[in-house]
Design brief:
This protein is an alpha/beta fold. It is 29% helix and 23% strand. The strands form two sheets. An eight-stranded mixed β-sheet has the order 5-4-3-2-1-12-13-14, sandwiched between helices. Strands 8-7-6-9-11-10 form a six-stranded mixed β-sheet, covered by helices on one side.
Length: 270
Amino acid sequence: MTPQPPPPYRLIATDLDGTLLRADETVSERTRAALGLATAAGAAHIVVTGRAVAWTRHILEALDYRGLAVCGQGAQVYHAGEHRLLTSVTLDRQLAALAVAKIEAEVGPLYLAASRDGMDGDVLVGPGYRVQEGPLPAVPITDASELWSAPLNKLYLQHPDLGDDALAEAARTVAGGLVGVTLAGAGIVELLPLGLSKATGLSLAARRLGVKAADTIAFGDMPNDVPMFGWAAHGVAMANAHPELLAVADEVTASHEDDGIAVVLERLFG
C-alpha cells in the first residue's frame, strides 16, 4: 500500500472576520468541505482572531471546532474542546491610560471601549463609541472610569473625525513605545500589550501542536494579520484585504464572500 504523502502544510491558520466568515458570520459549505479535505490529509486548522474568547466561542461551537484557538490578537490561547483558557496576557492599565492621554494630547478626545480579561470578559463601551451592529454582546457604560476597574486584554479607540488608518498611525507615533497599536477592522483600532500580536499567540499554539512556522499557511484580511503573515511560511490575503496586508501577502485569493480560503485549499489538498 502506497503511504499517504505528507500534506503541503501541516497547519492552516485562518482569521475569522473578513476571512473565514462571510458577512452574515457563517462559513460556507464549500469552505467547510475544503477544510475537511485538508484535515483529512493530516493538516490542522487553527482559528487566529482579534476577537476575545467571549466573542469567539459561539462561532467555534457552530463549526464544531474542538482544537486550539488564538483569540484577542494573540493574548489568549483557548482550548475549545476543553472550554479552557490555556494562556492569557493582560494590558497594563497604567501604561494604557498614559497612552490614551498622549494620543488625546495629539488628536483630541477619543471614544473608548475595553475588552475585559477572561473567558467571559465583557466588552465595556464608553460614551460615543460606535458599536457595530450584530450579535456580539457589549455593556454600555456612562462612567469612563469603569473601563479601568478590572484587568483588560485590549482597549478600543475611535475618533470623531479621524479615519482608522490616520488614528492608528497617530496612536503608533505618540504611544508606540508604551503599547501595541493595531487596526483589526473598520472602526476597530486597538491598544494591546507591547509586543503582542497574532504571531505571538500562533507561535505558542503551534508549539503545543508540534508544528513549525515553515509548516504553516495563514489567511487574513487586515493589518493585524501582518505579523501572522510574517511568521507563517505562506500568507494568503483575501481579495477584500486592506492594502497594508496585500502589500506583504505571498498570494491573493478570492474574497471572503467568494470562498477564497476554499479556492486555495482545494488547489493545495485536492
